[in-house]
Amino acid sequence: MLTRDQLETRKEKAVRFVENVLDDPSRADEIADESLESYAQRRQIQIVENPNGDLMPRVRLINPPHVSNPRRQITQPNPQSGRSELLARIRELQQENNQLQDTLDKVADLAAAPEDGLEEEHNDLVDKLNDIIDVVAPSEDKNEDDDLGNE
Fold this sequence. Notes:
With 151 residues, the chain is mainly alpha-helical. Among the domains are: 53 residues, no CATH class; 49 residues, no CATH class. It contains 8 helices and no strands. The longest helix has 33 residues. The termini are far apart.
């Protein structure tokens, strides 16, 4: 179950993946042109209308929170500090997502077939695979080399 916004985001990611990683621009165009409802049905995803409810802000204004236990108010965390921590975490995750997308783009570029349409030789494919491994896990190779040198 996803909201329309969440489903739209997922669909956009699918389009980018098919175009950049699978290198299939015609299929990416098909997905992009597909209606959100059709995409959801094909992927067996149920669209929900705002699960948090649009009425909640109005309910809070009409019926403000009532604190029956004065100690409860003291023990509640400051919502602003929690909010700022969440915003910082969101920024962190967005940066991580951008870095991962850059890595995927690099891998897609490295994995792309040669533009001249010729078949690649075994050694070229091995080099290409090693380059992809270096992009995906560069620190692991260094650690393995260090471990081998220390034995």
